[in-house]
Predict the 3D structure of the following.
Amino acid sequence: MFKCRDEVSTLPPYELGGAFAEEMKKYGVARVVKLNSNEGPYPPFPAAIEAMQKAAASSNRYPDPSSHAVRLALAEKYSVPAESIAIGPGSVMLIRALMEVAINPGDEVIIPWPSFPPYLLATHIMGGRIRKVPLVDHTHDLPAMLAAITDKTKVIVICNPNNPTSTIITKSALDDYFEKVPAHILTILDEAYIDYIQDKDCPDGLDYLQIGKPVAVLRTFSKIYGLAGLRVGYGFTSPELAETLRRVQEGFPVSHVAQAAALASLERGDLVAERARLNAEGLAYFAAEFDKLGLSYAKPFANFAFVDVRQDAREMFQKLMRQGVLVRPGATYDSPTYERVTVGTPEENEIFIGALKKALEM
Ligand SMILES: Cc1ncc(COP(=O)(O)O)c(C=O)c1O
């Protein structure tokens, strides 16, 4: 009988993110407030929608395999050579591609925990060994991550801001890390939420690339640009590694509709700033309401908060779901009393807080 590779057959079952629709109908939910996937609450920019519509008409053609125009635009925006940029179908697939490039069976990958579960999956699929290093105060413990290095360590993952805690690493802490990390280890610096950051003390991963550190800085169009459904992510790294990533990726990784939308989105720095401002207001509102409710939470910087609801987060999830609000229970992150809640529109944020208050009284 056919047997999958051991690394694949031992994978945990995939939990469907959208499987709640039927259950919500049962409870008569008229409106779903979706705050469980850290998507931006706003649609693509009008120019991006227009570009997609235009691009749709030439869908009979394969897309540009290297997303050349998007790479040039990113190169200009961030002052990084285009050869150092890789584009993928979501940054999550660049994480996969990096592990495919880096990991031989038995190699070790140091991963902060709790953090973004696809790091575990990408390592596991390649037969790599996962070394989880616990967060301290919801934040990366970089000295402990450095101390976890062995002669088998090939990759270290840093998620800044971290999903699910929404915390950031300070610039001095990351400077110190990059001074100490050995040159043969690749650091994957996942900055999926960096566009939301307004804190001056938050480091910019590109600074470390510029001084020649072995790093892949990953970012995405899925969050602030509102293009999660199109799947476009990008990474900055050495020209050699970017070229290798292009070689391991599927030939046409990003559709031309997605490339067109990404390109048009990059022109709207003003709208990005506006969304970052609205997001910061949403975070401040959540923090103030959690304080009033006496709930503790990690100080949030991204487009979500991680709050201790002081009860089984799965039960709390059910109570919120029956009121039409979807959040992410902390069990996935070994944080059984925490919920991760995405910042929505101001109206959605108020609906969530109203539902949370009711749920806490149930
Ligand atoms: C930390 C982190 N990295 C990467 C991603 C994936 O983003 P993309 O949609 O570009 O695959 C996410 C998505 O939620 C994330 O939280």
